[in-house]
Amino acid sequence: MAAASAAVRMLPDGGADDEERWLAEGIAGVQQNAFYMHRALDSNNLKDALKYSAQMLSELRTSRLSPHKYYELYMRAFDEMKKLEMFFREETRRGSCSVVDLYELVQHAGNVLPRLYLLCTVGSVYIKSKEAPAKDVLKDLVEMCRGIQHPLRGLFLRSYLSQISRDKLPDIGSEYEGDAESINDAVEFVLQNFIEMNKLWVRMQHQGPVREKEKRGKERNELRDLVGKNLHVLSQIEGVDLDMYKETVLPRILEQVVNCKDDLAQFYLMDCIIQVFPDEYHLQTLETLLSAFPQLQPSVDIKTVLSQLMDRLSNYAASSPEVLPEFLQVEAFAKFSNAIGKVIEAQPDMPVVGAVTLYVSLLTFTLRVHPDRLDYVDQVLGACVKKLSGKAKLEDSRATKQIVALLSAPLEKYSNIVTALELSNYPRVMDYLDNATTKVMAVVIIQSIMKNTTCISTSDKIESLFDLIKGLIKDMDGAQDDELDEEDFKEEQNSVARLIHMLHNDDPEEMLKILCTVQKHILQGGPKRLTFTVPSLVFSALKLVRRLQGQDGDVTGEDVPATPKKIFQILHQTVEALSCVPSPELALRLYLQCAEAANDCDLEPVAYEFFTQAFILYEEEITDSKAQITAIHLIIGTLQRMNIFGVENRDTLTHKTTGYSAKLLKKPDQCRAVYACSHLFWTDDQDGIMDGERVLLCLKRALRIANAAQQMASATRGSSGSVTLFIEILNKYLYFFEKGIPQITNTVIQDLIELIRTEKQSDNSVADPSTEAFFSSTLRYIEFQKQKGGSIGEKYEQIKTSS
User: Fold this and answer.
1) Which residue from 121, 352, 435, 529 has the least number of CB within 10 angstroms?
2) pLDDT at 577 over 80
3) Interhelix angle for 667-677 vs 625-641, to 10°?
4) CB of 682 within 8 A of CB of 689?
5) Which stretches does DSSP call E strand in 177-278?
6) Which Pfam families match (predicted)?
7) Cβ proximity of 88 and 144 under 8 Å
8) DSSP 173
């Protein structure tokens, strides 16, 4: 059987099918020899047991299996070796054979590999018997394992040695503990086994043809835990205190890691060190650990390992406030910062994304461990700027993503953009983002302000803020309008508009400075943006005007107190900027809002000027008939609420308004605008206008226009159309009738009711259910007022609603 297996081992390399066959044959060889070994064990035949166990272990001499398949074969043999170890223990306990003799006996096995497996197995029994110090047996075993230099076979042999010895190390509190030096021996054994295993593991990369290098890398990756388990064993040794770790363990491990010059091994082992040893040890040996990073191969993913180290230590700091003084004592931030600088310097070809990722991790560490040290945060940002200096705007999407993470971290930590504005290097980092990402970052900043309802209260801070979000408030160099998605653009500008409402200061002087700062920036935004941002600025300014109502002062010069006049000057300039859009409807609405505010501040000239600008827009810019209808009703509604104007100014404005109303394109629109103008001549306010004659004139004029509309409908469509306009005018008559205007009598109302009935009954009238309902409702209202009694009932008593 052994000869057949040897023949298999000599076959040339084959494919996956061949490998499966070789594994099956190897397992069959293990099982067959295990069967004979069990029979020998049952009959207490030590000689045969050793013979068949050696033949079984000879199957592990194969070089034809991949690491994955070899592991399957190894585990079959490993399970059998447990039974053999139990037999050896029983033999020595019964006295059939001394453990010393057994230890010598197994060394006569023909092949080195089976001999060493048997030697390790007996060595485990030897240590258990305590007939020799554990340290001596372990030292002997680790030295003799050097006899296997084939990487794969040697790795699994040493893994077996590590497995059977891990509970027999001369550690503190262990039953195998010897003198004071025994801890050093235990550590030395594990370290030596680790070093030899790592050498074998690295050597695998350099065996075989170059074309299979990638395949070997994958195979090696499957075996990494065999090497890493040694570091885990080291971390579990009770006697490895901080001093021993600092003086012996870490320097020896790092020496091996650096000297092996293998990127896979260096990455994995540095990660292992970070994961298996305590955080406290890392903190106290930070300088030693970090000094190894610049010495690693350029291809090692240092950023990931360093990031994991910083994450672990920041979690350690967060776990208990008591450990924070230790971080300050060891100057953790300075050491990490220096180490990252050295790593970047040692790897001049490191991609930008790698360097920025390191700074993101350092910033995250800083914000968690030293949140109160803004100078540290700014230092990290400054180091990033230094790395990026001399480069154009980033085009690498991964690097851009990391820059966004870097800039977002302070916003998330402090929940206050004001804190971020104190970081001098923050805007300098943003300068390296492309236009699209600058906008994304600006939106993130605004969302942070909204989410945390941050109030920004000084013009200096607002200047800095607008510098950060400049990608949203003006066109960037090289930006193409064609690239803008309309919906995205609207959302961005709406966010800026919302931001303007978050800018506030209780001091009117400072608030005025804020408004001037905002105005300066948004007026540079170009026509497309003004329609979104100007209204927000106008209403913020009007809010300040309301606070200052009644105040006045000289408005000459620059450094003047915050007065309504000064603010209205700013408002005039701001709304006037909409003329370049153009957006006359919006500008007209804003002029009317300003006029109403000026009315409340008793500033008649200012209010008149705003109305003048509104009329100019109406005359020159608003040409769409629907827009004209909306605009004229807005003018009427605003003018009706004005009480500041003298007789001359008011007459001018009302005359203009009624004139525009009568010139609308469609007769029904003219009619409705004209009867709405009637409200301009009768207001209920104290000292309000009460000109019944002109009210009646407006209503009569509306009736004439309604009648003309009927005639036009009859001429063009052959029917007089609806009488809705007459019913609407009737309702206006009733409104002013109740107000007590002497010119509107019950006779006038009665005549109008009869006119409506006549029009409805004419042959040309068109039946309209909604008009019928409207008229019926109006008549019911008159009846309801009659039934009230009193003075109201008397007024309505003479009006007859039935035909």
Assistant:
1) 435
2) yes
3) 10
4) yes
5) none
6) Vps35
7) no
8) T
Look up residue 370 and give its two tokens: 């030293």
Residue 246's pLDDT is what? 94
Record the pTM: 0.75
Query: Please, what sign has the CA dihedral across residues 136, 137, 138, 139?
Result: positive
CA angle 272, 275, 279 (to 5 degrees): 130
Q: Report DSSP letters for 6-20, one per residue.
A: HHHHTSPP--HHHHH
CB atoms closer than 10 angstroms to residue 599: 22
Cα(485)–Cα(482) distance, rounded to whole angstroms? 8
Whether 339 and 294 have beta carbons less than 8 Å apart is answered as yes
Q: Name the DSSP letter for residue 175.
A: T
- Contacts for 725 with CB less than 8 Å, ≥ 6 apart: 668, 671, 672, 702, 706, 709
530 membership: H or E segment, kind and range:
helix 527-547
Number of Cβ within 10 Å of residue 161's Cβ equals 26
CA-closest candidate to residue 161, choices 153, 629, 321, 19 = 153
Weakest-pLDDT range from 125-139, 147-161, 260-274, 625-639? 125-139
246-261 pLDDT, tens digit per residue, is 999 999 999 999 999 9
Q: Report whether 106 contacts 142 (CB < 8 A).
A: no
Tokens of 116: 């060493």
Distance, in Å, from the CA atom of 378 to the CA atom of 617, rounded to the nearest integer, reads 51
Q: What angle do CA 497, 499, 503 make, to 5 degrees?
A: 120
For 503, list phi and psi in degrees, rounded to 5: -95, 115
Domain ranges across the chain: 22-132, 134-277, 298-421, 666-802
DSSP annotation of 149 reads -
- Tally of residues, the chain: 803
Q: Which of 354, 339, 366, 444 is nearest to 399 (CA)?
A: 354
Closest CA relative to residue 754, chosen from 801, 714, 796, 794: 801
Q: Could you tell me the two tokens for 551?
A: 């105040």
Spatial contact of 187 and 245, defined as CB atoms under 8 Å apart: no
Residue that is written with structure tokens 């007769």 in the block: 667
Answer whether 429's CB lies under 8 Å from 385's CB. Answer: yes
263's tokens: 């990127």
Report the DSSP beta bridge partners of residue 690: 682
3-state secondary structure of 721: strand
